[in-house]
Queue: 2 jobs
Job 1
Amino acid sequence: MIKQISGGFIIEAGNSTMLLEVNEVQKPVLAYYGPKMKEPESLTAFKTPYGTAMGTATLYDEKKAPTLTLDQLNLEISTPYKGDYGSPSLLLEGQSSPVYDFVYQSFEIRKPEPLPELPSPHDAEEELVLKLADPAQKVEAELHYLTYKDSGVIGRYLKITNQGEPLDIRKAMSLQIILDGEGFELVNFYGTWSGEFQKDITPLNHLRYSFDSTTGSSSARHNPYFIIKKKETSYQAGGCYGFNLVYSGNHYEEVEYSSFDKLRVQTGISPLGFKKTLQKGESFVTPLAVLTFSDQGLNGLIHVMHDFVNAHVVPQEFAYKARPVVFNNWEGTFMKFNERKLHSLVRKAAAIGAECFVLDDGWFGKRNNDKAGLGDWTVNKRKLPHGIKGLCSYVHKKGMKFGLWFEPEMVNPDSDLFRAHPEYAIQDGIHQPCLARNQLTLDLTKPEVRTYIIDAVEAVLKSAPIDFVKWDYNRNMSDIPMNSGTFFHDYILGLYQVVGKITSDFPKILFENCASGGNRCDLGMLSYFAQTWVSDDTDSFERAKIQDGMVLGYPLSVMSNHVSAKISNQMLRKTSFDSKFDVACLGILGYELDLGSLSKKELSNFKQQIAFYKAHREVCQFGTYEQISTLEDSSFSTKEAHNAKEAVVSRTVGICRPVPSQESLFAIGLDPNADYHYAIRREDLDLRRFGTIVNYVLPIHLKEEGALISFIAKFKSMPCETLEGDMSGAGLMGGGLKFPMLWNGTGYSDKVSFMGDFGSRLYLLSRK
Ligand code: GLA
């Protein structure tokens, strides 16, 4: 709900209320943002008292407000040189005075309009436009506030229109909000390839903090999602604010505590390499930022963000639609495959219950390694004599959907495309462009390049009834062209045009976003592609940490997770297939390994895993998520997804202790008065995990890692601990259920849990 009230405006979103005041000097300021409240009649009680002008205060307008200085206002937009000495959210450079002073003129409450050329979440309900202007400079600024049906999220963006002399925009943040009070902390997500979404928590001092992406994409280095929380806020209680950008390019976030304990928060396009010139009559619209408030701790924030992405961000065609269990051949074959090998994988994938077979990199051009072929999107007939159509039909006959990998924004210098059109690649014309993974980025600011990509991808999609596309993007940008004030931004606008066209021409195809894993994982890409490959790191322990970070802002239904070989390609760490499953199953489950090298027992285990997942897919993909503990604050990462029917709890341990403590489950969100049946998902443990201690109980002597134990292990395994019974929701939430104690070096029984370092377990709580 958005309404004008005396002195300003009220915006109600979910369980939050925002009050915006237009004050006596016509500046829009934040009067309140917090728990939902009864609609006040006026904003009088929420006004900041400007008792006296402090020593060095610069008085904005002595006549209208004798004690008021901009420095002490919670400004919704800030420009320099008028007494606000914090970081400006808008920086303009014109022909004459550097002073731009925007004051309120009028407002409009309207049916929301989508942002031009940029992704806009759907089902926006209402939009408030605050129209400001600097009449002396003839520049207008509009502050836009959007609400979304049944959502606690508020959308924000800025539009600048120049009616005067040409000017340059040097910085234009989508959102500025200033919060009052001490003791705030910043939670941000940094990372790298194979180590995305690492969580940092920084107590904030009276400094300016910033993070950004300068790689050309939203990047794994700093995801645009971040949180401001009170020091005492935990997952389960306390106040916190979440911020994100619906944008896939270079972004910039700034958090600054003023000397008056006002916390200024900004997010928008990165000012690096950004200079937008506006001629008279021209406008610039920033990408949309989204924000939310929760007084129910970080889990409360998670609920609002997950619902928002599920209901308003991902393409409507796929909103709340079950995602298929994928088999992907990448780590199983890399680019070394032929039709026979793929057919055999297809049969095995179908037999274990996979629902979509995805052919990854290596099917096109002269793509036998990553040195050649990108850009040439025609099938390699040596590998696939019956083409994509032939393979697609084989997969369909085996009862699965068919998916195909593309990396359309890239080109290898060793490709027909580059030989014919070197000018399609991004380069500055005077330096040798840097290669990354032997490739260059195509210049999507050029219309002919966009047309090439659309035609090339669509030709393949038209050639066979393809159901799924994995769209990859595997390098960061360098060597950007000269005189390109908005190159990075124009690239992203070009990308949105390309993916907008292809996804609307093929609305039934499910697209998976990928950028070497999570190097472009953001709400912009999710507006076109309903799911995203979280990380190339499929080591289950690392993955648990990555997923624990990502899930703070992105729902399970977009997180694509694969079970891969036991020894992870990325860490060379060994974890069991079951641990991998226990981590992968909160999200979209997939498999990515050579099924041909597995034993019957292992394949039958996969079959059981997939059957379990299908039976509980609804809660695994769309359940309400609760983080119970993290590896930062305990030895376990424990989380849960629940719906009215059941809850799935996944638990991963870090390094086991020699004398483990007794742990209990503290479930969240169950019905306290209902009865539940709880049960561990039974797993078989590899005999070899027990080393030479098996000799303690066996009549024969087995050598550690010897041929005999390896042979026996093919058929025989140890059952994991048991845990099964009934308990009320209240008991399960109150710590009534005790986990079996971890292995402590002596004695193994069904009441001892041998998780081993980095192991995981899964528990099902079914409402009776
Ligand atoms: C990237 C992706 C992988 C795989 C390879 C193929 O690294 O993240 O999943 O598709 O490219 O080259």
Job 2
Amino acid sequence: MSRLSRRSFLGLLGVAGAAVAGCGLGSASGQTGEQLTSALPLPKPFRVPLPVPPVAKPMGKDLYQITQRMAQAEILPGVRTPILGYDGIFPGPTIETRRGRPVIVRHRNELHVPTVVHLHGGHTPHEHDGWPLDLVLPVGNTRDWRSGHGLTGDTVEGERDYRYPMDQRAATLWYHDHRMDFTGPAVYRGLAGFHLVRDEIEDALPLPSGDRELPLMICDRAFAEDGSFRYPSLDQEMRSVPGVEDEWMEGVLGDVVLVNGAPWPVHEVDAARYRLRLLNASNARRYRIALTVPNGPDLPLTQIGSDGGLLAAPVRHQAIEMAPAERFDVVVDFSELPVGTEVTMVNGLGSGGTANVMRFTVVRQAADDSRIPDRLAEFERLTPPPGAPVRTFRFTRGRTNDHTGWTINGRPFHPATSLADSRLGEVETWRFVSDVHHPVHVHLDPFQVLRRSGRAPRPYDTGWKDTVDVRPAEVVEVAVRFTDYRGAFVMHCHNLEHEDMAMMATVTVS
Ligand code: C2O
Ligand code: CU
Ligand code: CU
């Protein structure tokens, strides 16, 4: 299929796509997507040390500046991979913030393509949320980037100040590119980083901290023969970053698992508790994360936080299923293990190389005064009152004549068409109905999972969520409440190929 046909699909507004369930996609493996194979020799797992992204230093009081630029990264040992990077690195620098203390992040675009920055999990007004058409054009841009689909937003050239109120609970957020139709290739090439929010409630807890608190960005990639990231675009030139090819619309999976930008890394740990902030930053891959120990039972993962921050009480998991964009804040206890033990983080939904994620090696005994308290934080349960709006969103493959894409309620994304008009402060029930796997993400405020196909939520649904893994042929009901900011926001599938292929909707809050 040509690029033109994809555009014409995106342009066909109001033509209801026939919902075709199933389509024989690879859901048996727990994945919706197709895997690319790397064309160069891959390293042995657990050899490369785990990198930890540097923490960004403010330029002035609460002002951060990030330059988006191309760079060469050494991801596979001895191989150069061109990336698009925040400050030229992948993952980008970690931005550390405090609740109630607003920050400005000034993004300067020195790439050759427009960008949009979204703070995922941020409680952010419309103007700073990274509306998919609010482009930051490259510095010195002379090209008209708007002619393609004829839609425009609040476009600026060179630089934009994103203002984040940070009026929200302590949580693990992340920032990434969000340009309409081109998010998948841009994130795949490196535009993603952590953004943490801390607060006094969390400070008061005796959780592992310092070197024993690790943000772990997990994602999969494939590599071309020349070392570049392999992505099925119509043009491999990084200068244009075209969208995904139609035949890859199920989702792009790679055969190499990266953690903080390193392939199957290894990290030396004390025999002590560690706090791991897990983020699935993959375009389409889902994981079932477990920690295996030679000749012993798996190490449990004790969850203390979800997408939206601390849980009311810890939840113990033997394994954690993570869809794209979900975060799980967990504590792992290495203290009972003898020095020399190798603990492998595995992926129960992978096979071959993708069955491994990373390894921890216990290298020394150490003192540890951390603890996991039985109670973590206040938790306000959202309960939709009788008569509150119930909205249904069907996430399905859409088909118009011979053109295919993804739709919500039969519609491909059109920014000016709102699929929901919600009132500020009201609790509503939203029902997400799926054909195949769709990780559904809502901007502006987190939500709570009420039911899955009429039954209780899964253990992974606990707490405040902003992304929920909707499995094939499932109905996930969530309680949603928007607060503080009126205006237009988006909700979408966070399988980035689905998102780019129009599985997004505008929500208006008034
Ligand atoms: Cu993580 Cu609308 O995105
Ligand atoms: Cu978001
Ligand atoms: Cu989807």
